[in-house]
């Protein structure tokens, strides 16, 4: 028995108007015309910028406290937790002897994935993820940010606990020993 | 003889040609989307209507390297993919530029692995690095604006591109 196929229904022959394609073209142009009068969605980026939410995670930065001390005590927790190992720290003693401080604190921004683990793990609240999201670099060396640059980007975040005043003993207002502000960083 | 040349210089602006070439080049960058991972999604977002990179003349993404002059390496370059990336880069006509987009393409990112190239600049010369994981479309637009500045600068200097300057890539770096 020969193979029997189901007969296919062919479309009717195009009308003369449809064969000119003019109705289809006009229909398409009508959609384009309607879009002209819709609200514009394009953000004119370099002039107009996005308002970032407070929990946005941009480039990590270091901060100073209200007395302009470097808050980082070089405990190496962020270096340890960092998934891409973007942070490199060298510790040193600082003058007061109370705490350590970072001699070198480099973050390789090309390695950094802005996961926020460093901010989460930091016991001194010394490292934060900023809202900086549009930095570009021309070389790998330029994208390894040293401590000075990170501190400058971070600015000042007050330390409500006033850890230094407690550790030195007396509050500064009563003429207590004021720990030396770090000379280097 | 010198007098005549001075007269001619009043009417013929020979030095302006470089400026004209620079203007043309920087405002018609045709990117080659080397989308290898999630960064390619942000690359597509940059081309779409909200960020709209056609404002910078770079909206013509060409999937043929012969028609492109800016390679955007967006994503993890595995060792297996590296020869293909290199070959596509070599197929692009001069002058050409490269943006390493995101942590993986720039330095390997979190993939400190035997199977991943630690930065695409091990195999091809990179002009602009865009950090982020993935970078926002704005960051990539910043990268394209930086490439435009480089194009301008290099065309004015009469040079071609970084690829022409050094035949060999920078080599393995930490």
Structural class of chain B: alpha/beta
Task: Provide the succession of SSEs of chain B.
Answer: HHEHEHEHEHH
Mean pLDDT of chain B: 84
Of all protein chain pairs, which has the greatest interface, and how many residues does each chain bring to it? A-B, 29 and 32 residues
Report the span from N to C terminus of chain B. Answer: 59 Å
Mean pLDDT of chain A: 85
Report on this structure.
The complex is a heterodimer of chains A (185) and B (174). By secondary structure, chain A is an alpha+beta fold. Chain A has 6 helices and 5 strands; from the N terminus they run ααβαββαββαα. The longest helix of chain A is centred in the N-terminal third of the chain and has 15 residues, at 22-36. The mean pLDDT of chain A is 85. Chain B has 174 residues and is α/β, with parallel strands linked by helices. A 4-stranded parallel beta sheet of chain B has the order 1-2-3-4. In chain B, α2 (16-26) runs antiparallel to α6 (137-156) and α3 (39-47) packs across α6. Chain B is elongated. The termini of chain B are far apart. Chains A and B meet through loops of A and α5, β4 and α6 of B.
């Amino acid at each position: 028995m020969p193979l029997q196929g189901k007969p296919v229904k062919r479309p009717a022959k195009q009308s003369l108007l449809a064969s000119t394609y003019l109705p289809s073209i006009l229909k398409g142009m009508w959609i384009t015309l309607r879009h002209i009068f819709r609200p514009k969605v394009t953000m004119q980026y370099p002039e107009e910028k996005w308002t970032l939410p407070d929990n946005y995670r941009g480039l990590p930065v270091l901060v100073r406290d209200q007395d302009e001390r470097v808050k980082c005590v070089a405990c190496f927790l962020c270096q340890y937790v960092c998934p891409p190992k973007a942070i490199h720290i060298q510790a040193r003693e600082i003058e007061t002897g109370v705490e350590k401080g970072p001699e070198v604190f480099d973050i390789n921004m090309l390695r950094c994935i802005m996961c926020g683990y460093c901010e989460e793990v930091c016991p001194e609240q010394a490292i934060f993820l900023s809202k900086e999201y549009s930095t570009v670099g021309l070389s790998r060396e330029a994208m390894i940010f040293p401590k000075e640059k990170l501190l400058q980007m971070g600015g000042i975040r007050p330390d409500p606990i006033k850890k230094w005043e407690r550790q030195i003993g007396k509050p500064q207002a009563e003429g207590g020993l004021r720990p030396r502000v770090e000379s280097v960083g | 003889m010198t007098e005549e040349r001075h007269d001619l210089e009043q009417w013929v602006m020979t030095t302006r040609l470089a400026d004209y070439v620079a203007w043309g080049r920087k405002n018609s960058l045709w990117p080659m989307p080397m989308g290898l991972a999630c960064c390619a999604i942000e690359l597509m977002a940059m081309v779409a209507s909200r960020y709209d990179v056609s404002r910078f003349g770079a909206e013509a993404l060409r999937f043929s390297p012969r028609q492109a002059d800016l390679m955007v390496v967006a994503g993890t370059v595995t060792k297996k993919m590296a020869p293909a990336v290199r070959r596509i880069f070599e197929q692009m006509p001069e002058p050409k530029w490269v943006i390493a987009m995101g942590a993986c393409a720039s330095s390997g990112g979190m993939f400190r692995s035997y199977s991943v190239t630690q930065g695409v600049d091990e195999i091809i010369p990179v002009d602009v690095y865009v950090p982020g994981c993935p970078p926002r479309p704005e960051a990539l637009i910043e990268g394209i604006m930086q490439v435009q500045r480089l194009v301008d600068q290099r065309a004015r200097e009469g040079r071609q591109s970084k690829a022409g300057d050094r035949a060999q890539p920078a080599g393995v770096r930490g």
